[in-house]
Amino acid sequence: MLVEALDVLQSLLLIALLLSGVIFAFHLTRLLAKSSLDTEDFKPERDPHTGLWRYHRHTRFQEKPVLAVTLPGPAPRGTRLGWIPRLLIAVLQFLKLVVFLAFVRPAPTERSAAPTGETSEPPEDEGNTNENGQAPRDPSVEAGLPGPPPRLAVLRFQGLRDLNASGDQRLSEAIDEVLVNRDHFEEAVVIIDSPGGTTHGYGHAYALLERLSASGLKVTACIDRIGASGGYLMALPADRILAGPFAIVGSVGVVAGIPNVKRLLEEKGVSYRLFVAGDKKRVVHFADDDGPEVREYMDEKLAGIHTQFLQAVEKHRGDRVKLDEVRSGDHWSAEESVEKGLGLVDELQTSAEYLLERNREVALVMIERRVDITERFAGYLAARLSARVASLFTRWLRV
What we know:
With 399 residues, the chain is α/β, with parallel strands linked by helices.
């Protein structure tokens, strides 16, 4: 009897796993087919927890209230659940997830096209937007009444393994949220962690920070580990730059490189043919002549970008920076740069230390992008797979 019950339970679990796998594949296919930046038919709406306006569909606000003077003590002993209740809770959560994925569907959006030659009437005001389709200003601010409690927006840019600064789109959406809720924030803190990368990618990130600074909001850039080259470039528009003592800063320079395999191809009897229209269309490529004209052309291009970089440093740091020493392209630790008086950073302080200090006076609002469950699972699988491959590679090197 017990064996039969176990067989039935095993069959039910197998069916549940298969069903969840099919549902997961279905939602993953929908996620891949639909652009994550699709904001069609989405109007700004109030976040029920923070009262802020959500301008992008995928934005998530996490508010940390002002730090109390007395923190709650540790939980009393004997309140932890045993492993059996925890197991039952985990099973119920899994079943809840399966039911949610199986039966919950997003409501279809209705579209009504006006006949040719007729004009469609604008939709009735639902209280979420004004007549221009934008989030209205806070009523208390417009009426001259005391506004909402002061808040500090926290934005993050991670670019340690991202030379193309592909996170600039998420940063752009987060800045949109800050500007839409401009009356609710008194400061924005941007935590940057990047060694730099492509000129166009980090040049765009620099323009995003300039846009945020131009709004009149106080902007503070925090560099905990590294903010060099393009990473330091995007921190320049901030009013203040804070960095950890051992954080790498500087590297105000430009670098470019490409392998030249022309002689290798000639040894193998391979000829490379390139057809262009325009004398300067493709001067440098992997099979060029590597003559003085090519080197002079590249030196001129790099010097032009370097000049733009130096102009940005001079524009935002002004007399605070020693431009003659910084222009060399060298990098320093933040503490070393302060000791030498280079003016690359304003204060030695980590982001965690600064945010904790500010949280005693204002509430913190972390502005992030909501991650779909399929994206979380895909990220988990990718992390596990990369860790496994790294472990096997390390084991092979030891052998």
